[in-house]
Amino acid sequence: MKKRIVSLLVLATMTATMFAGCGGSDSATTEAPADSAATETADAEVAAELPADTGKVLNIQCWNDEFQSRLKSHYPGYEEVDATHGKIGDVEVVWTITPSTDNAYQNNLDEALLAQESAAADDKVDLFLVEADYALKYVDTDYAMALSDLGITDADLADQYKYTQSIVTDSNGKLKGSSWQACSAGLIYNREAAKEVLGTDDPDEVQAAVADWGKYNETAAKVAEAGYTMCSAYDTFRVYSNNVSGKWVQDNKVVIDKNIDKWIDDSKELVDAKAEDTDDLWGDDWAKGKNPEGKVFCYFGPAWFFNFCLNADDPASIAGQGGWGYCVGPQSYYWGGTWICAATGTDNANLVKDIILKMTTDKGILKDIAQQDADCVNSKTVLAELAADDSGNLDLLGGQNPYKQLAEGAEKVDLSNISAYDQGCNEELQKAIKNYFQGNATKEEALDMFKKAVVEKYPELTAE
Amino acid sequence: MNKKSKVVSYNKWGYIFLIPFTVIFLIFQLVPLATTIYNSFFENYRSGLTQIGPNFVGLQNYGTIITNGDLPTYFYNTMVMWLMGFIPQILLSLLLGAWFTDPSLRLKCQTFFKTVIYLPNLIMASAFAMLFFTLFSDSGPINSMLMQIGVFKEAYQFMSHVWTVRTLVATMNCLMWFGNTTILLMAGMLGIDPSLFEAAQVDGATSTQIFYKITLPLLRPILIFVMITSLIGGLQMFDVPQILTNGTGDPMRSSMTLIMYLNKHLFSKNYGLAGALSVFLFVITGILSLIVFKFTNSDKVK
């Protein structure tokens, strides 16, 4: 009997932990109360004059609480009710937060938008957020409203950076979203390592040593000699892929751009020379360079990266000791950012318009966001102000003010070659080419593997 | 007329008790099976937010799967990883089962050990795979241990060599399932009439002889059951390699199983191609189960 009790206990604990692992999925699906006195305004053709708001519920689809917290602290009149509910005036704000992991956010948003027409007025999506990698999937459809239809003019958006607009411009040239962030990114270098390898940690001189890919590769060779790793080959991918000369998909055919090809060749050489490694982004192996003993020369990233991803709270990390420096790097690029889109069929058009205008163009609010939340904001004027005084100096960058470089980078980012297939193509290319980097396949075999994976994801495309 | 009321018929209870199974089978197995086959004749997927199809395309999906030549590769991968896990698993289970059921050994703490060997099966496969992924990563504990005792000079990349990845998958499957198999085999062994063992001992048979001449032959029905269920489970291998390789089946898809390949069509909600692939899987599973069944039953026919 005793034995049985023991084993039952063991089993019970095991099962309990198992179920503990199963529970607590982050997705919070919310249902709006169904008291609808609202009249349908769905199909009304809206020009500059918007119909009066009839909706009692503002539905917002997003993947984390970032926008929620921005709205909470910066939008006048927003009151928080609980984690997924808020109030603006007498309109109830309902947040549907679905994490992006495993494409869950997009799957959920797809279903919500496809059901938009038949949904009850209080269930219709009013606002949704997108990331750049898949923005066109939504923007280039009628499910997203053109900002001009909301009565937002080019003059309102004149202070924004051009690239943040090209990401959300559809194939007819209509702008359909707006962002409060301008995530231009650059090279974040380990000052200690720069002194050892290059003899200086001055941002301008380090920039000179990595000003183009030729110089970058020379520096990488020196870095490897000194016993450091430059970075992961995957750190540089976005830099190359943002500077392509054509779209990933042309006439339904996958095209490998020459800059992508250059990334493969350059990286293979550096990986073979042990100047770069092939660690996946965000993994433990990749993250080891955040501490001095990881012996990593640099990371590539924007403002949110050095502010939030370098463990500045940990005194043993390089960031904790103020040991990073920032320069633009070989080519300008951007990484991340959240765009706000208005969903067609919204019954709160005026409120949606006001949220977009206040959150992405109001200079006072944007400056607050930059100073409170360390976002690099989408306003040329505000960034210029921050670059001009000392309030932009950052401890983790050894007191350097990065806003000059960030603003300079944001001007140069050119995203005319973005396509709706970018997310799938970028992901699959990086996965497939790892086989080539690690010597398990020739370049041709790895590229064939990539083409195969892309066609699996997008059956309408051809790759040969 | 009166006669009937005196005889109580219990037959109807048999049918009544069968209802739950039949209903569940119809709703959750037969209907999906039929719709899968039906779907396989259509072009039906989603491109971004645009639904394409369903358009009837006949056998085109089947043609696509046969001509792109991926199916044999993934079938081979699946079978290799299944065999690498199943062979040690069945040997281990037979040995443990024989020990546990042998009264002359008088093993202590049997209940404890039986529970412990079953425990790995209670951990979610994905959690188990995550654990192994962390253990065997380039800067993980296994690598640092091996480097400290001087086996390797620099970290061995377990995840980028064909056979280490396959071995890891096989090891995990073996660890997760050997307890389950042991329990099944023990049940089979305890069902053998003890007088047969006693008679053999009286006749002077060694324990090896008893194992091969009495235990194994009489265990055949249970062995067939174990083999077929494990084979079907093996063909459906998914979670462990999926999590371990982050869905890529790398290096060069050498650890991609059939179901992982099926899962690749989920992204575009490609019901047509996925349906055709599932039909192939259904046929393969059927044929293999038949082979195992015939092969292990051949003696009786003679």
Describe the structure.
The complex is a heterodimer of chains A (464) and B (302). Chain A folds into two domains: 57-182 and 336-387, Periplasmic binding protein-like II (D-Maltodextrin-Binding Protein, domain 2); 184-334 and 400-457, Periplasmic binding protein-like II (D-Maltodextrin-Binding Protein, domain 2). A seven-stranded mixed β-sheet of chain A has the order 2-3-4-1-5-13-6, sandwiched between helices. In chain A, strands 7, 10, 11 and 12 form a four-stranded antiparallel β-sheet that branches. A two-stranded antiparallel sheet of chain A has the order 8-9. Chain A is of the alpha+beta class. Chain A has 18 helices and 13 strands. Chain A is globular and about 65 Å long. Residues 16-47 of chain A have low confidence and may be disordered. Chain B has 302 residues and is mainly alpha-helical. Chain B has a single domain, classed as MetI-like fold (Orthogonal Bundle). Helices cover 71% and strands 4% of the residues of chain B. Chain B has 13 helices and two strands. Chain B has helices spanning 2-6, 11-39, 60-68, 70-101, 110-118, 125-135, 141-148, 162-190, 194-202, 207-235, 239-244, 258-264, 271-301, and strands at residues 42-47, 50-56. Chain B has a two-stranded antiparallel sheet. The N and C termini of chain B lie far apart (52 Å). In chain B, 30% of the residues are buried. Classes of the chains: A alpha+beta (464), B mainly alpha (302). The interface between A and B is large, with 44 and 41 residues.
Short recap of the structure:
Chain A has 464 residues and is an alpha+beta fold.
